[in-house]
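hey can u check if this looks right to u? its 273 residues, i copy pasted from the old doc so theres a chance i mangled smth
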Amino acid sequence: MKKTIIRTLASVAGLAVIALGLAACGSTSSSSSKGDTVDSELVSKGKLTVGLEGTYAPYSYRANGKLTGFEVDLSKAIAKKLGLTADFKPTKWDSLIQGVGSGRFDISLNNITETPERAKAYSFSTPYVYSRYILITKKGNKDITKIADIKGKKTADATGSDNEALAKKFGATVVPSQEFTTSLQLVKDGRADATINAVSAWSTYAKTEDTSAWTATEIPSSDVPAAKIAALLNKKSTALTKAVNKAIKELREDGTLTKLSKQYFNADITEDK
């Protein structure tokens, strides 16, 4: 009788262990399923495919043939938080946003401003930079000293960029120019009256190049608020967008975002001040 009771208790204990094991397996499966949700939204499993220009210092550019810059390092840090490796796809500006929509890239980090128009078709991460604008004219140009003066004038700006939208908002005719150095040359040659860009881009250019041919005037935030720069993602990538936002939040909290900003911009431009 005692042996029967002991066997029965052992059987019950064994079933309990099996039940616990199944519960544990169920928990692992759920966790894995969360990971698979992000994986299912990626262009390539295990990789965060990033679209950027690679020609726009200090955001992304080449130094000694190697891709570097603020958004390059930020992309790597985000990918690491997601347990992925960053796979960069240098692309011209006018194909970057379309590349996210068509599924060529998972994400694009390229000093992209969140606008109501873009937000209709794409998702944006939380902002990681607040970019202020600068107005650049040819040295000696007294007709343009503030943003309102570009009305009726020609500005050299990239097609589809926030700079182009700003120029048109203030009444300028835009001469298409995909690269910052080209825009500067157009202004210098008199083929455009001005160009609009980020203060950070001009500051970086001025560190190594002769700027005596131009006059640069920072546009007050009272005239034009700082642009909210964020990562652009496909609307369908809901899990990835959530994961990227979490990663950016952690990078802000652990000081990585500020550290990278000071490294590449010599200032913390990650806060809306």
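Residues 1-35 have pLDDT under 50 and may be disordered.
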